[in-house]
Amino acid sequence: MSPCPFCNTMIPVTELDCSQCKNAIPYCIVTGGHMTLQDWSYCPTCRFPALFDSFKQYLEKNTACPMCDQEIVPSAVEIADDPRAMLKAAVSNGDEKEDGQDGKGGAGNGAGAGAGAGGV
Q: At the top level of CATH, which class does the domain 1-93 belong to?
């Protein structure tokens, strides 16, 4: 069990939809489990979310991102400075209009709740 990143309700790590707040939760590209705010990181290339500890362990044995297959230098993976902003960007998928933008070329890349954040 781990907390939903939206409402902090404890849910099984394999649940990608919170039964309490009904939000779709982004998944980790390494484990497939839902993301948590306290362990949020991402691939520096494709920007898909990954649980920091799991991603670091994965990179001890593998050199490429499991999502984009690009070489990753382990030191480039860091805990997100603002995981709530990354959560918002991941679930908005670039469809929300901000500052007069039309939503095109936004934060997401069309991959739904698992999509990475566009910027940090």
A: alpha beta
